[in-house]
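Same chain as my last thread, 264 residues:
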Amino acid sequence: MSEKKTAPFFLPDWPAPARVRALCTTRAGGCSEGPWFSLNLGERCGDDPEHVRRNRARLAALLPAPPLWLHQVHGVDVIHHPGRPGAPGAAAPQADAVVAHGSDEVCAVLAADCLPVLFCDRAGTRVAAAHAGWRGLAAGVLQATVRALETEPGDLLAWLGPAIGPGVYEVGSEVAQAFAGYAAGLRPGRRDDRWLLDLYTLARLKLAEAGVPAVYGGGLCTFSDPARFFSYRRDGTTGRMASVIWLADQGPGRAQGALLQDAL
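reply #2:
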């Protein structure tokens, strides 16, 4: 697979304050091989641990500090960034979202079809990253993240990262039942017992319930773009992308566009 036309990272398109920095990785630009080709950042998907370590080091070199990696379990637990990424080799905290209020506390979530959601407030004083697959969405991980940000929901911005799109995410009746009352996020599938699930619409509905009116992104399908994104539903054994966010120091710094230049 060629990666000549695929950049390793891209920036969210949203009107975040200047102090808020964020990026999302693609599958390009790393050293992993086989089904994890090439910038796999997930430790628990079968890849060579040394390749993952090197890929994570490449990402960390672009950031003010290494990300705080989570052990994601499709739940609703949200943690506050402890101010340090953790000692090398230490167990990742079990949670599906992380909130930070301090400078250079790098929040990250991994995904390969599930929906990554980044948050910030309009004043640029707090950020968060959440991992929202269908289980997390149904259980309320986005609402839990909004509460953990401890500010008026109307002052928040949210960005929906790459996830499996509504035209290809077919699920069974048990999953559809988990979203009873959210008809806008469901439409009939190819058989009577199948449904097409729209993670983007469901996330917007859940965020609206939580009082967050400003939601951006939600137009990138992981399944339909194998050159750019990993997809578990498409490939089974595959890697993971990261969506990353942090607060820069208040003083002058490098423009965020320089991150991409460094990565290429």
